[in-house]
Structures are given as structure tokens and as C-alpha cells.
Amino acid sequence: MSSIGRLIWMCAWVLLSAITAQTADYPPDIQRIMDRGKLIVAMYYKDIPPFFMHIPGKTAPEGMRCQPSGDGYFCGVDVELALGIADTLGVVCEFQRKAEKFDSLIDILGRHEADVAISLLSKTLDRSRKVLFTKPYVSLYNGMLLNRLFMATYSENSSLISILNHPTVKIGVKGGTSWVQYVNRLFPNAVILEYPSWDPDVISAVRKGDVMAAYADEIEIKKAIIAKPDVVIELKTVVLKDITDPIAMAVPWDSFQLLQWLNTYMEEMKVTMTADSILGRYPESIKGSAEQLVSGESQQ
pLDDT per residue over 242-254, tens digit each? Predict the structure, then answer.
């Protein structure tokens, strides 16, 4: 074969390879998942019913999509969402649960140790500087549990904001969460105390009067009431309907195609939720976890 013939043959081969690659391959962020054959989902290391939780038993809870795990099943809102996404991609789902703080999920994505974080993760301005967020799949109101003995010292006509936004007031919140940002913004003059966990640390603190208020989202607030209605004797519940906490999936900063695909997935599957619809879907699991919350026992 002449040199010109070889050159023509090589050009044709390169062109054919390029065309084949374009028709068969996906963008790099999707291709990694397909080549691996699994979707790696970063998730907070402790269970937070009803979003992700272990349920013991030999059979999966009726009406729930769960993954076998140990002597039971791994279930919940975020688990079902992750499993559905993996199914649609045609791969298996692997949950990576080593993040001991919610902010650590952002670091895991930054190191490309997971494809996506689906973990009751709040979409905030600070986190959005490091990762990409999908559209929210649920937006939760913020809320508080107030110590009734503390509140009794104030007039009913007093503004709640003015009462709590005072240098002598202590407000408890779980560290490493978006709640820290919200409570500091809302009550800049108060003393904000960050605790390792919501349950039992923050809950115990407000019940004992170590803090005057406990700040969280509406689901955590409602869980206590569902479990044990007489908790209202000790604590007053407040839902702040002018402050919403958007919960979304997050992907690494360079996973543009995966981000677009996840948004399209939610549109196609009509993935929209409210706090009440979530509580209604998982009533028994919430009740069990909330009973631990009210009694001061630690969730696992």
C-alpha cells in the first residue's frame, strides 16, 4: 500500500472511530457510572427516618422500595429515590455512608468519591460554591421547639423574634447542618450552641432548659408530636412558614450532564414531595424513631 493509501486508510479509521464513539459513548460523568456498573450515592452515616433508615425483618416493609441490609432492609425517601435513579440508568446502587457531618458530603463530592449525594441535603449558597445542586425534590419549613418555662416569663404579646434575638438567649442546633446558617441569620444576637446530634443532644438541652429553643426543620419538629403528643406540655412547637429549606441532590462541580439528567429524571417521574406526604407515607417508622427522640435515646 502506498503512503497516500495508508494515509487515506488512517484518516478513514480515525473518522469511523470518532463517529462510533459519538454514537456509543456518554459524556464522562455519565460514562464513569456506566463503565463501573454502579451508582455511588453519598449519604450521612446515621439513620434519619424517614429519609434513610434500617428496618429489621425478613421481608421488606409493604409498599416500600428497600435494599437488603444485614438482618433487615435499608429504606426511606432518599433510598427509594436513589434506587429508582440507579434502575433507570441500568446500574446497581451503592450507598457510601462515611460522612459524619452533612457538610462532609460536599467534601466527598469534591474528591469525586461519589457520583451523587442524596441525603436530606440542604441546598445553600455556601455549598453551591463547591458542588452542583439539582432542583429541590422537597422544601421544608424551618421550625423550633421552645421551652415552655422560658416562654412563660414573657408576655403573650411579645414578638418571638425579639424574645429569641437577645444576647442572653441560647438556641441549640445540630452542628454541620444548614440549620446553623439559618439560625445565625435569623437570630444574630443570640448565643447559638452547636451540638453533635439533634437527638439526643439538642432535644435534651431544650427539655432541661440548657437552651431556650431548639432549631431544626418541620419534619424533626413534627416527629416529636407524632410520637408523643403530651410533649407539648414541656415544649411549644413553632413552624416558620416564611423560611424554607430546599432539599436537593448534589453532584461534583464538573458533572454537568449528570445534573441535567437528574433534573430530567425528577420531571419525568414527577418527583415532588411535601413534609405531610412524607410523614403520611412512613408513619410507623417515624413514630418509632420519634419515641426515641422524646425519651432521649439515641437513634442509630
Answer: 888 999 999 999 9
Tens digits of residue pLDDT in 185-214:
999 999 999 999 887 899 889 989 999 999
Q: Does 149 lie in the same domain as 124?
A: no
Total domains present in the chain: 2
Which residues have a Cβ under 8 Å from the Cβ of 95 and sit 6 or more positions away? Answer: 41, 43, 67, 74, 79, 82
Contact 121, 247 (CB under 8 A): yes
Residues 72, 127 contacting (CB under 8 angstroms): no
For residue 227, give its domain range. 140-245
- Taking only the tens place, the pLDDT of each residue in 150-159 is 988 887 767 8
Burial 119-135 (b: 16+ CB within 10 A, else e): bbbbbbeebeeebbbbe
* 172 in the same domain as 123: no
284 lies in some domain: no
Phi and psi, residue 78, nearest 5°: -70, -30
**What pTM was estimated for this model as a whole?**
0.78
Helix axis angle, 218-227 to 283-295, nearest 10°: 80
Residue with more model confidence, 263 or 158:
263
What letter would DSSP give residue 110?
H
**Cis-peptide, bond into residue 200, ω within 30° of zero:** yes
Q: Which three cell numbers stand for residue 9?
A: 486508510
